[in-house]
Amino acid sequence: MLIKEIILENFMSYEYARIPLKPGINIICGPNGAGKSSILVGISVALGQSYTERSKKLSDLIRRGKDIGRVTLVLDNSRRGGRRPVRRINKDQIYLTRVLRRDGKYWFEIDNAHATKAEVVRLLSRFKVDPDNMLIIMHQDMAEQFVILPPQEKLKLVEAAAGLESYRRNVLEARNKLRRILSQEDSLKKMLESAEETLSYWREQYERFQQRKQLLMKRRFLERELAWAEVARIEGEFSEVRSKLNERKAELERILEEIRFSGGEVNKLRSELENAKASWRKFFDERLTLEREKAKHEFNVQNAEMLSDIQSLVEDGRRMIDDFIGGLGLIEEGASYPYSGIDTNHASEALSAAKNLKKWSGELNAKITKIREAVEKSRRSLPILEEELSDIKGKMQKISEDIEKLNERILKERINLAILEYRRREIESEIREIERKIKYLKERIAEATSRAEEKGSRIAVLRSPDEILDEIRMIDGRLSAMADIPGDVERMYESYSKLYLELQEKARLAAENREKALAEVEQRMATWRRLIRDLLSSVSSQYEKILAYANGTGYVRLVNDEDIESAGIEIYVGFRGAKPVPLNIYSQSGGERSTSVMAFLLALQQHIKSPFRAIDEYDVHMDPRNREVIANLLISAVEGSDVQYLAITPNQTYFEGKGIHMITVQNIEGTSVVMEVT
Fold it and tell me: Which of 4, 1, 8 is nearest to 665 (CA)?
């Protein structure tokens, strides 16, 4: 199925109508003038079909009194076999709209977005629909137009409807290619004959030219030899200067190596000096620490006698305190005490203070004892410290001597480094002077080489320039006697020889291409002929069966199939026992022509690729019996397929009760009204 619904807005006799279509056969019926054909015209306009039955201008299709009309087709884009017809639009429905304006502006819309005619054509190609093929959409009176079409046009319509257009295009492309090759081959033959005559003339001139050419070649060689001899002379001078440069560079490299070595020695000695200074500072710090420790111990020893006096005083004090404490105890017991100034009331307080003083003297005595132990320890440590200090002083003396020696060595290396730098600058100056000379010689060599390269690539030179000049003068004398020979003989001869060979090769290739193109034409023609014959054989057989139901006989045949451009289809038909004759507007009546065309269309149905087909008033000239026969055959042809068929007829009775989607159209006061029949 292609079309789910048709929406007409201000189109012809329709103000607004929505016409649903279903798979299978859709019949639109109604009285004449109701607006049946307008529906198919609307479909054709929306699909971009160039044919419009009722008007030369699309603006004439707009409803009278309105400025804009619109036709919209709701296309079925649901999945078929897991794929949508238009894969880039991922939804089941696509809205294709054609907008018409009274001012003559028309445009397409796809899903409410502006679209070009080319985009619409591409969209319909995804559905395999060609709206311009009358075998797919046949308007009123198109059956008569089909009858009068030449056989060649009938065949092209059938090919397009059956999807065989590409085979015709392949044949025509191959034939056009063959024509181009044949034309090219004929032109090459004529050019080859003319080139052969011209080449014969220049060959004679070329033979005279050979001797002069040899002399000119010899002279050019001598000029080349002379130029390279000059290059060789300058290069000899350059080689000597470059050797001197290499010697100076070697000497400079040696001095630089000595500078690097001397600089390394200076850095090494400086590193050793820094290490020695660091060691000296380390020993100095250790000596300072030991000196401080020694002074501390000496101080302890010097104050040892003072500690003895202090300890004696403490012992005397303790004895006095003990006496004082004994007296205070007696006072507390009520006895008399020889000390004045202390009464019984203050005896307790004095006793407590005396006891605290005794306790403090005991602690002081303990501390003095500890200090005496430290002094003793200091006496023992002093000799050890003296020995360590003596050792450190010796090491510091040794390091000081090493530092002095290192400074002397560094000074010596720096003097040597300064001398080397002076020599380096002198040699570098000399090298720069040599390099300037080398640059000058290089420029001369480049100039001489450039001049020599104009004469040719380099050659080995074994003679002096004077010897070469003598030989050049001799050749110039011989050439002056041959000045009348044209100078462009060689170019013309080579040009025409090359042209002649190229034309020969092109002629050979053209002959090969002709054979290939001819074989390609025959192969494609055979393929096309086989497919068309098979198609028309099947159509003819079915056509004959369908006519039998209408009391007729006939067949379809392919004519002039040896030439694709002359090939065509001839339809033969005969009714009521008459011998089949070609279908035309003279041999058959209107009803017979309508029946024959419908029989052909029905026979072709199974080969048409389009999912949508439509025909308008196909039965207008048929008798009642043939209307019924064709209606039943139409139902049989579409039944069980995915085809959507739209048929317009004023006679609905032949389809009633057969499960066909029926749509009636009436015109009420100038407006067409659509109604589904259930």
Answer: 8
- Look over the chain and give the mean of its residue pLDDT values, rounded to a whole number: 85
Q: Is 90 exceeded by the pLDDT of residue 208?
A: no
Q: Provide the 3-class DSSP secondary structure of residue 340.
A: coil
- Calculate mean pLDDT across residues 412-440: 88
CB 61 within 8 A of CB 41: yes
Beta strands in 90-211 (DSSP E): 93-101, 106-110, 113-115, 137-138
Closest CA to 614 of 129, 7, 58: 129
What's the rounded Cα separation, in Å, for the pair 172 and 512?
20
How many C-beta neighbours within 10 Å does residue 127 have? 20
R_g of the chain computed on alpha carbons: 64
The secondary element (H helix, E strand) that includes residue 672 is: strand 671-677
- The DSSP secondary-structure symbol of 63 reads P
Q: How far apart are the first and last CA of the chain?
A: 20
Under the banding of pLDDT at 50, 70 and 90, the label for residue 216 is confident
Nearest residue to 645 via CA among 635, 653, 656, 654: 635
| CA separation, residue 554 to residues 152, 529, 588, 596 (Å) | 19, 22, 13, 9
Those residues whose C-beta lies under 8 Å from the C-beta of residue 337, and which sit 6 or more positions away, are 327, 328, 330, 331
Tokens at 228, concatenated: 């390279």
Q: What's the rounded Cα separation, in Å, for the pair 488 and 495?
A: 10
Give yes or no for a contact between 222 and 471, defined as CB atoms under 8 angstroms apart: yes
What pLDDT digit, counting tens, does each position of 612-649 carry? Answer: 999 988 777 888 888 888 888 888 888 777 889 999 98
With tokens 């000096």, the residue in question is 273
Q: 664: which strand partners? A: 29, 675
* 3-class DSSP state of 285: helix
Give me the helix-helix angle, 165-302 and 465-480, nearest 10°: 160
Nearest to 98 by CA among 133, 46, 26, 167: 46
Residues 6+ apart with CB under 8 A from 165: 159
Distance, in Å, from the CA atom of 494 to the CA atom of 488, rounded to the nearest integer, reads 10
Q: How far apart are CA 22 and CA 104, in angstroms?
A: 33
Asked if residues 93 and 77 have their Cβ atoms less than 8 Å apart, the reply is yes
Give the amino acid at 589.
S
Asked if 191 and 506 touch (Cβ cutoff 8 Å), the reply is no
Look at residues 675, 617, 669 and name the one whose alpha carbon lies nearest to residue 17: 675
- Per-residue exposure over 196-224, b if at least 16 CB sit within 10 Å of its own CB, e if not: eeebeebeeebeebeebeeebeebebbbb
Beta strands in 596-660, from DSSP E residues, in sequence order: 612-616, 644-648
Q: Which amino acid belongs to residue 295? A: A
- Is pTM beyond 0.90? Reply is no
